[in-house]
């Protein structure tokens, strides 16, 4: 979205840290693309729901939406290592 967004999106500090830690686990050659796609998706989810803060559920939803299915296994392992319980948001183990 452009600079004329209806909502100024902020990140919950704990969620931002988890995002950064997840990004650190992604191979360097994919990291910048992944960072852009996942952060944009998380912020879009927040906007679509009329909110202004990205929380863990938004981050998890964005990772599942933007990560190709074949990489969900390693992504889930990374989430588990960081204490992110994706199952509580409806995603299978």
Question: In summary, what is this structure?
Answer:
The chain has 93 residues and is mainly alpha-helical. Helices cover 58% and strands 4% of the residues. It is built from four helices and two strands.
- Using the CA coordinates, give the radius of gyration: 13 Å
Shape: globular
The total beta strand count reads: 2
Mean pLDDT: 93
- Strand order, largest beta sheet: 1-2
Written overview of the protein:
The chain is mainly alpha-helical and 93 residues long. Helices cover 58% and strands 4% of the residues. The protein contains four helices and two strands; from the N terminus they run E-H-H-E-H-H. The protein has helices at residues 13-24, 28-48, 56-66, 72-81, and strands spanning 10-11, 53-54. It is globular. The N and C termini lie far apart (33 Å).
């Amino acid at each position: 979205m452009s600079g004329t967004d209806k909502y100024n999106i902020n990140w919950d500090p704990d969620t931002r840290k988890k995002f950064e830690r997840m990004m650190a686990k992604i191979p360097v050659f994919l990291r910048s693309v992944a960072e852009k796609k996942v952060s944009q998706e998380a912020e879009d989810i927040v906007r679509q729901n009329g909110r202004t803060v990205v929380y863990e559920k938004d981050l998890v939803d964005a990772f599942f939406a933007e990560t190709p299915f074949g990489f969900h296994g390693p992504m889930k392992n990374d989430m588990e290592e960081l204490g992110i319980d994706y199952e509580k948001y409806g995603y299978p183990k």
